[in-house]
Amino acid sequence: MVQVLTAKVGWMLLLVSLLSLSGSCNASTMMDSNAETCLSDGTCQADPKASTTSTTTKKGNSTASVKLQCGLFLAESSIPKSGWGMYTGVDLQVGKEIPPLDVMIPVVDSELHRTLMQHYKRLSQTIGTHIRGKHGGFGPSKRNSSVAFRDIKVPKWLMEQYYWDSSMTHNWYDAEKIDSVVPGLGMLANSHPGMILCENDGPSRPNILGGHVVNGAGSSPYQNQAFLATTDVPAGHELFVEYGDSWFEERFDKSFGLSDDYARSNVMVEKWQTSILDTHRDKQEQNSTLWDELEQLLLQAVEPLDPRLHEVLGRLDLVRKNNDTKRFAAKDNPAAYAAVPQAPRSVEWLYQEGMCLDHIAVYDSYVAPGEKGAFAARDLPKGTLVAPAPVVHMSRDHLTMLLMDTHDSDIVLWKGMQLLLNYCYGHKDSSLVFFPYSPSVNLLNHYGKTTSGPNVKLQWSSKMPHPEWLEWTPEQVVQEQYKAGMVMEIVALEDIPQGAELVLDYGDAWQEAFEEHARTTPRPPELQPVDINLHDLLTVNDQQKYPPHVETVCWIHKSQHPHFIYNHRKLYGGKMPEAWLPWVLMKTDYLSDTVSCDIVGKRTDGASYNVVLKDTIQPRNGGEEIDVDVRITNVPRRAITVVPLVYTSAELRRDSFRHEIQLPEEMVPEQWRDLKETTQNRDEESQCHLYMAESAIPNAGWGIYRGYAAPMLANNTNDLDHFCEDMVIQVEDFTLNQVLRNRFHKQAPDSEMDSWILDHYAWSGDITKGGNLEAEKVQSFSPGCGMLANAYPMLYNAHKMPPSRLPINTTDPSLGATTHYHSGMFVEQYLKQGKNKIRTLQNGMEIVVKATEEWLESSKEEVLGKLPFRRDFMTVDKVMRSFLKLTQTHSTEATDLLWKLLWNTVEGFQLKRIASVLPRNPGDIKEMLTKGGSAKYTLRDRVREPEWLETHGSCVDNIRPGPSTIDMAGNGAFATRKLAEGSVISPLPLIHVHRQHMDLFNGDSIRDPNKEVWQDGKQLVLNYMYGHAESNLLLFPYSPVVNYINHANSTAANAKLQWSSKFNSEDWLQKSPEELLRHHKTAGLAFDLVATREIAAGEEVLLDYGPEWESAWRKHVENWALDPNWSYEPPVNEWLDWMPTEREIDHLQNRQTSLKKTDFQFERPDKFLGCHVKLPDVPIPPVYDENGVLPEFEWTPVDGMFRTTSHVFPCEVVDRLIDGEHDIRYAVIRKDSVAPLHDLYSAIVTVHPGNHQTPPRRFVSYDMPRRAIEIFDEEYSSPQFYKGAFRHPIGIPNDLMPDAWRDLKS
């Protein structure tokens, strides 16, 4: 026994020496990964996939096997439980390409855009500004992007598991952050850290940078993507590509074996064989148990020292090596083959169990000139499975690209899609898209006009791993973030001869989109072509220069980088070297190992060059930045190349063509069609989202409540509610026109009749995005929540978003007959408590908007009394907390006395606002404080139960706005759900006004009371009023969307009016118009809009406006003739286009004599240029200073500045500054890209005082963003003010018109 132990100790010492002799192998360069999972045996596996069968042709109901030659197969992987693998069907020689070639597709700044998309969908949350990258502009910095967004959780998606590093695919310089999608071997092949049989050779770099743009830049310029065999590989062997050790390290713990561990294991096996087993074979035969124990001792010795090595060695049979197993290279790589012993298969097995992947060859396309195409590599009989196509699923949101306003995160400046979308398959009704990734299938072109039709088709494979996904919703499919589970098949529709191009039907939607893009998109400017393969490179001293869209870069060793030399300048005498340094050899062709360099000299034969490297250094001890340079000599031509500057490639232009390939209808299950028309999706929504009912605010009348149709999670601030999409109607100069009306009729003012109730419902025109600029004084009316929702201090739970101004430029009879302000919406408000966000709206709660104290005092006090303000609630809460403490230390008698004293004080000083909040009974104090304070306690009924809303309220979301089916009607109202005959579509609460309120007047001098005035038309709001020819009374409806209801004759109408049984004050029907207008200053009338037949979801709701309206409209159309002096075009504000300066306009006019100043829209007489500017905090001098110079102030933003026009002043743009030190020619190219550079402006701002006697004041605002400069209509110039516009109220049916109202009957 002692001898055995001694022997073991001796062998242990030898094992330690073996460990030291094994050495180490460096991990290979990391590249981005394939979406695969890895096991503890060191193998990386593709996602689970079903086993496959041989190529077949279907004839009728039978299946006939077709024997076709094949060089590449998809079959069950040799890695246990890993699904598919890729196998070679022919012998491969080291260094040879593995056909077929493919395409590489770049994905640009994907993490940034997915982050922005995530926040874009949160309407009320701040998105934050773009990061300024190393090349400036809207791009993530390669160094800092992860830091800038560290607090934002970017949603996962499957495709990022497949990315390859752009340094390996030759597109490193195309964008700030770029990833590469490499189909075929790049996505289908598995990986093993100990067995690399092929490597990514990358695609061909475009030889010419710039030049002609092909097919709208809709395809990748990176073609001929190739993989090379790194060793001789026999037919039948599974192919493994290299992911790099870093990929495995990021995903697995420290016991997972890496490439170095496999290499060391092989060395140890060799040492074991030669130093131990071969020398002591006789002892092995005598005592096999000893050798087994020695093997265990070896593993035990290794485990604590090197867990990774232990994991690899644990699978090896070190003692009894399997010398009888004759596998390919097994003797050279025993560690890897111990993990994947089945990697070599027989070719016969592949034909029986696999599917062919190389029926496609790649050549220049016939049907798409300038592109690559897919061709039949051999004769393919009808029904042949041309290629299996496993797909990566994703949401359209994953491919969305956004440019957001840097000062207002709710504003999207541009929305586009990644180039990858052009290679995806999808359907217009679904948010899902699918990217196929088997070899060369992405080079299938649309059959086009040069062929008789498609010769291949798509279908889902019966062998896909997860057919149940066809039954899932898009949301459920996208949640599968770590595995692909679906497979398409490309099948021959006819006998296809070898060499014929394979063409597919991309679908009508794709064809229409492509034709529309070709027809409407101007041809992009052709950049000067640069051949990157020319032997002679240009130097900075040559007369001929490189164009601004390229730069030269050099492969320079890190020890010669300026930053490195600066940090090690002690080696050069404490300063930067002035002498030329000889180039240090570099053995890499990765673009990530290059740096920008200036070529300053060259040998006459162009074999080597002298270059200068420049950099800006920030000293470690602080201080100013230092510009340094390093001179390198004898740089060989092969170490220098020309690359594009970021975001100058044609495919990165914003106007590049983007559209998915259409999936056939039969491949898109109903469950996936989540983008169908909203009305169709709402057909099953029986519950109501919004109710009109009595407000919980005393004396406030009606209010609007959130229903119970959808759950509202209290902590889900990522899904804030939005509601009440509606129009905004502008009313011009109401008060002024009442003054002019009295002058016109030579009558005294009448304060009661000259005012109207609508004053209480008006919004400031500046929050309706330009409404205040339409006329001298504008009132904006926003039906729906804008007029139904009440205001109450401290309890507001919604805020108004500005409407969109539609670019209406019609010249037909509808000109000026409808408002052009639409899509005004309300969004749920949230509160911040530290870093937490708290929702303020819940199901059943009354919707309350915020109003200023001034508005509450001026507009609501006569109706609601003295409403408490925020300070009153806070005062009461503070006093009640103190009083509650007193009750705990004093007797009941004493506290009762104190309570009486408190009330005597409140009443004595007539503190009515405090009194309206203060509890009457001191016993209520504790309940008040525990329920959230006095504000919530005073409105205890603001949350209603569903039964109460159904009984006392009426649904107001049965209709939604949309483009009308009626000619010249603009928008219309559509049913959101099926509506039964006789059901109430919507209540129509009504505000009563006088006809005289609609009159407009004008004059030569309207402010001179002695000058004549004349009647000059009617207010636009008249077209939304209900009236009768025999009455002065007009009624304005203000529930959501009802003002979109269009006219149809009595036969086509599907709705009618009746007086409301819930909301109408019936005694008002017996009062005269004058009595109502003088004595009733609140709304009290209401119609019900009732369905006259069943109305389907999505059907337009139509009302008969009456014979008088129809006659007036017919007459208007018959007599229509556009005023020849009328000229109008909607303001065009392209926020990403540069705004020309006054100097540039003058320069262009001097060069082009035919160019008029009015060719620039803002120079037209009906337009002006306005700047969003915060006025300086100091007084603005009224004139230039003594030197004729205007004062200058730096532009500063204001929260929500661009949502209103309250900060807009006329301005003139005088200068532009491009962000960063960039050639202006480069900036011009990049301004049309997906990441334009920031452009800042200086403008002269003019501030007009409130009176007409004081001269305007002017100043220069500098560093102003483009977004702050906007084109507006001049006052009284938009279509609303067209003198010949149609004006007529909607008719109230005779049977609804009370006799008491017929004051014009005679």
Comma- or semicolon-separated keywords:
24% strand; disordered N terminus; SET_dom_sf; six-stranded mixed beta sheet; six-stranded antiparallel beta sheet; 1306 residues; alpha+beta; globular; SET_dom; 20% helix; 30 helices; signal; Guanylate cyclase
Describe what you observe in this structure.
There is one protein chain. The protein is an alpha+beta fold and 1306 residues long. The strands form 22 sheets. A six-stranded mixed sheet has the order 24-25-18-22-21-35. Strands 38, 39, 40, 42, 43 and 44 form a six-stranded antiparallel sheet that branches. A hairpin with a 7-residue loop joins strand 19 (400-404) and strand 20 (412-417). Helix 1 (2-21) crosses helix 8 (288-305), helix 6 crosses helix 9 and helix 8 packs antiparallel against helix 9. The protein is globular, with a radius of gyration of 39 Å. The N and C termini lie far apart (132 Å). The relative contact order is 0.09. Mean pLDDT is 84; it is low at 1-66, 123-154, 321-329 and 678-684.
Strand content: 15-25%
Distance between the termini: 132 Å
Number of strands: 66
Helical fraction: 10-25%
Instruction: Give the helix tally.
Output: 30
Shape annotation: globular
Q: Radius of gyration, Cα only, in angstroms?
A: 39 Å
Structural class: alpha+beta
Which strand order spans the largest sheet, edge to edge or round the barrel?
Answer: 24-25-18-22-21-35
Low-confidence stretches: 1-66, 123-154, 321-329, 678-684
Average pLDDT metric: 84
